[in-house]
């Protein structure tokens, strides 16, 4: 019984640390299907620029920068400045396992605080290579 209570407390605490609701989480396949259907929703990469520039990234994604830093948050805010606050948009990082990502939570919180009401977080559970690139989802490399 104690084990069950501890498990329940852990799940409750763990989910309470995320600023989004379950409805705001999107699995990679869901976004990939939309891209393959020629939809072009705004997508922002909120991770480290070297991963965006030197590797592949989600097709159509704009580089906002690491939102664990003020410069990244400022870049994200600038990137979304002209978007309507009720426009659906997607955030992803993929630099590391989702539960440890230093960038996705500050990015979501910043957009939520700016009044965006349809922010979706792409759950790149392991990393972008494993959960997106290896699965053959739409990706592109930056022209150098």
Q: At the third CATH level, what is the topology name?
A: Oxidized Rhodanese, domain 1
> Which whole number gives the mean pLDDT?
89
Can you tell me the CATH class?
Alpha Beta
- Indicate the structural class: alpha/beta
What's the shape? globular
What Rg do the Cα atoms give? Answer: 16 Å
Provide the fold topology.
Layout: H1 2-16, E1 25-26, H2 28-36, E2 43-45, H3 49-54, E3 56-58, E4 62-63, H4 70-80, E5 89-92, H5 104-113, E6 119-122, H6 128-133, E7 139-141
Parallel strand pairs: 1-6, 2-4, 2-5, 5-6
Antiparallel strand pairs: 3-7
Helix pairs in contact: 4-5
Provide a descriptive summary of the structure in words.
The chain has 144 residues and is α/β, with parallel strands linked by helices. It has one domain (22-141): Oxidized Rhodanese, domain 1, CATH 3.40.250. It has six helices and seven strands, in the order H-E-H-E-H-E-E-H-E-H-E-H-E. The strands form two sheets. The chain has a five-stranded parallel β-sheet with strand order 1-6-5-2-4. The protein is globular, with a radius of gyration of 16 Å.
In short:
This protein has 144 residues and is an alpha/beta fold. The protein has helices at 2-16, 28-36, 49-54, 70-80, 104-113, 128-133, and strands spanning 25-26, 43-45, 56-58, 62-63, 89-92, 119-122, 139-141.
Record keyword descriptors for this entry.
single chain, 144 residues, alpha/beta, Oxidized Rhodanese, domain 1, two-stranded antiparallel ribbon, 40% helix, disordered N terminus
């Amino acid at each position: 019984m104690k084990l069950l209570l501890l498990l329940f407390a852990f799940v409750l605490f763990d989910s309470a640390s995320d600023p989004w609701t379950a409805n705001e989480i999107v699995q990679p396949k869901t976004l990939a299907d939309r891209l393959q259907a020629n939809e072009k929703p705004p997508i922002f990469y909120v991770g480290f620029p070297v991963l965006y520039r030197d590797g592949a990234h989600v097709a159509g994604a704009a580089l906002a920068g690491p939102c664990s830093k003020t410069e990244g948050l400022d870049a994200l805010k600038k990137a979304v400045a002209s978007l309507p606050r009720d426009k659906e948009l997607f955030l992803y990082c993929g630099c590391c396992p989702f539960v440890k990502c230093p960038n996705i939570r500050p990015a979501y919180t910043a957009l939520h605080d700016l009044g965006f009401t349809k922010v979706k977080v792409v759950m790149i559970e392991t990393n972008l290579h494993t959960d997106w690139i290896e699965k053959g989802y739409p990706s592109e490399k930056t022209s150098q």
